[in-house]
Design brief:
Alpha-Beta Plaits, 31% helix
Length: 71
């Protein structure tokens, strides 16, 4: 399983609810969470076959900004 982190602008429970159906459509996404208390609104995903590009595309389709975090 591959864990990745992304900086986003998903900043509240309403935003999390808005992005949930988009991320739920990704096959091979084992789990995900957003730390809305962090200044960078960190999205952490556990990939089980899905790609980082699929995650980025889904979050953008939901109307949010996302960029990979290095390290």
């Amino acid at each position: 399983m591959n864990n990745l982190k992304f900086k986003t602008n998903i900043n509240c429970s309403g935003c999390v609810a808005a992005v949930t159906p988009h991320l739920a459509k990704i096959d091979g996404l084992a789990s995900w969470s957003v730390d809305t208390d962090d200044a960078d609104k960190i999205l952490t995903v556990a990939l089980a076959g899905a790609s980082a590009d699929e995650v980025v595309e889904s979050v953008k389709k939901a109307g949010f900004q996302i960029e990979p975090l290095n390290g």
